[in-house]
Amino acid sequence: MRMLLAWMVAAIVTALLSAALRRSLRDTGGRGGPWRSGLARLRADRASMLALYTLVALVVVAALANRLAPYDPSHPIGNYIELQSRPPSRLFPFGTDQSSRDIFSRVLFGARISLGIAVLAMLLSLTVGTAYGALAGYAGGIVDAVMARALDAALATPRILILLAALSVWGQVSVGRLIVLLGLTGWFDVSRMVRAQVLALRDDDVAIAARALGASAVRTVTRHVLPRVLSPVLASAALNIASLIALEAGLSYLGIGTTEGTSWGSIIYDGSDAFAERWWISLFPGLAIATAVVAFNVLGDGLRDALDPRQLFSR
Amino acid sequence: MWRLIARRLAQSVVVVFLVTTATFVLIRTAPGDAVAAKAATANMSAAVRQQMRDRLALDRPFAEQYAIYLGRVARGDFDYSLSSEEQVSTLLARAIPNTLILVGVALLAAFVLGVALGVVQASRQGGWFDRIATLAGVVFYSMPSFWLALVVMLLFAVHWGLFPTSAMCTAEFCGEPASLSSFGDLAKHLVLPAGTLALVLSAGIARYQRSAVLDTMHEDFIRTARAKGVGERAVLWHHILRNALLPVITLIGFALPALLGGAVFVEKIFAWPGMGELAVKAVSARDYPVVLAVAIVGSALVCVGSLVADLLTAWANPRARSS
C-alpha cells in the first residue's frame, strides 16, 4: 500500500517537473536572446521532449529509489535458497538473481550509480575540454598547433583500451577514481569543438570591441567568447552522458568497474555467466541502459539541431 | 598526395609515441612496481627478483627507464606476459590477425548495409520506411554493444541454434590447413560477432549517408542530370550516390576507434581469440604488460586504418587531393 502511494507520488512529481520544464522552454518572442528561442525550438520537437520526460522520470526514480523499491537491493529476500534465480513473476517483476535479490529493486537503485557516475564524469570532461579548447583556440600560433596535434592523437586512440590499461595497472578502483578516469578520457571531442569555435570567434567584432575597451585576455575569453560557444557544448553534454552510461556499464560488465555500489552494468555482469538459463538478470538492466542512452542521444541530437541555426537549413 | 601520406604518417608516429608515454606514466604511477606485482602472484626467490629488476632496468634513473622503454616498444618488444610466461609480442601476433578478420568483415558489412539503408531512406524521405529505419537506427546506435551481443547470442545461437556460440572454429577444423570447408566453418563462426559489430556501426553510417544524400540532391549537377533526361534511378545510384559516398568514406576513419572498442566486448562474449579477448583476460589477471601492448598496438592499427581511409578519400575525391 505504502509502495503504491510512493509510485503515485513519483508519477505526480515526474508530471509536475515535466510540465514545469516544458513551460520554461516557452517562446518569449525574441526576449532573452538566441538561447531562449533555441530552447523554444526544442519544445517543438516531439522526440526531444519525449526523451526529456523519460529522463525526468529516470531521475525521479533514482532519487526516490529507497521508497520505490519493493525489496532491499543488496540483501537476499527471506529464504536464501527458495527464492534463488526466480524468473519474472507478479511478486518479482524482473525476477531474482543467484543470491535471491530482487532484480527490480536492484535496477531502481542501479540508476543512482549509473546516472551519478555518468553525470559527474561528464561535468569533469566538459570543464577540462572547454578549458583546453579555449586555451588552444585563443592562444593560436605554435601553442595551438601543438595542442591541436596532441588532441588529434588522443582522438585516434580507442578509449576503452586506455581505460583497460589503467585498470590493469591500478586494479579495482573507487567510485571517485572511476569518475576521474572516465572524465579525463572523454574530453577530447568537446575540446576540438570548442577550439574550432573559439578560433573562429576570437577576432570577431565582439572580441575586438571587448579588447578595445581594455578587457584582459582572460576576461575576453570567459565573458565574451565562451558564452557564444556554449550551445554546442550543451548538446555534447547530453551525448557525452549517453556514451558514459554505456561505457561504465561495459567496464562493470567486464567485472573491472568499481566495486562500490551496484550499477546497471554490474547487474548484467551478475547474470552473464549463465545468460542462457537466467536471461532476466541481464536483460532488464540492459533495457534500462538502452532506455537512458537512447533518451540522452535523442535529447542531445535535438539540442544540437535546436541551438544551431545552421543545422536547421542543412537537413 | 605524397605530402598527405607523409603528414599522416608523422601524425601516426606522434599518436603511438603519446600512447606509449601514457602507458609508461601509468606503470610509474601504479602502486608498487612490475616485479612486486609479479612477486605477489608467483613464488619468486630474491635472486630471480633481482634478475627481473635488472632486465626491466627498474633501478636506473627515471629518464633512462623511459628511454629504454621507448626503445623496446619501438623494436616491438613488450616484455613477457605475467600470467603465461610467453612473450607479449608472440601473443599479439596470434591475436591481431583474428581481430583484423572480425573488424574487417564487420566494417565491410556495416558499410554496405549502412550505405544501402541511408540511400533508400533518403530517397523516401519522411515515408514510413524512413521513419522506422531512423528510429531503429537511434536504438541500435545507442545500445551497448556488449548487451546487444548477449541478446544476439541468446536468440540466434542458444534459442534457435542457427550459429555457434563461441570461438573461431569447430574442433575438427581448428589448426587444420585452410580448405573450402574450414573457410565455411570460419564464416559460420563469424556471422554473429561480426554481425553485432556491423549492426551498431551501420546505424551510424546510415544516418550519415542519409543526410549526405539529402544534401547532394539539391546540388546543381543533379538538376543538370535530370534536365538531360537521366532516369530517376540512374540519378540516385550514379550521380547522387557517387558524390554522397565521399563524406562516408571519411567517416570510416573516425569510426575505427569505436569499432575496435566494440570489438573488445564482442570478442569477449563470443570468445573470439583476438586482441580484445586477450586484453580482457589480461585485465582480470592484472597482467598489465599484455594490456599496455594491446593499447599501443591498437592505437597504431587505428592510425594505419585512418591513413587508408584518407587515401581512399583522396582516390575517390579529386577535390580532397589538392587540399
Topology:
The complex is a heterodimer of chains A (315) and B (323).
Chain A: H1 2-24, H2 33-44, H3 46-63, H4 65-68, H5 103-139, H6 141-155, H7 159-170, H8 175-184, H9 188-201, H10 205-212, H11 217-225, H12 230-253, H13 264-272, H14 279-307, H15 309-314
Helix pairs in contact in A: 1-3, 2-14, 3-5, 3-14, 5-6, 5-8, 5-9, 5-12, 5-14, 6-9, 10-11, 12-13, 12-14, 13-14
Chain B: H1 2-29, H2 34-41, H3 46-55, H4 62-74, H5 88-123, H6 128-142, H7 145-159, H8 180-217, H9 220-227, H10 232-269, H11 275-284, H12 288-316, H13 318-322
- Largest sheet: number of strands, sense, barrel closure of chain A: none
| Shape field of chain A | flat
What's the number of helices of chain B?
Answer: 13
Task: Note the beta-strand portion of chain B.
Answer: under 5%
Oligomer: heterodimer
> Could you give the count of β-strands of chain A?
0
| Sequence stretches where pLDDT stays below 50 over 5 or more residues of chain B | none
Q: Over the alpha carbons, how many angstroms does the gyration radius of chain A reach?
A: 23 Å
Q: Gyration radius of chain B, to the nearest Å?
A: 24 Å
Helix proportion of residues of chain A, in percent? over 70%
Largest sheet composition of chain B: none
> What percent of residues of chain B adopt helix (DSSP H or I)?
over 70%
Report the average pLDDT across residues of chain A: 86
What is the element string of chain B, with H for helices and E for strands? HHHHHHHHHHHHH
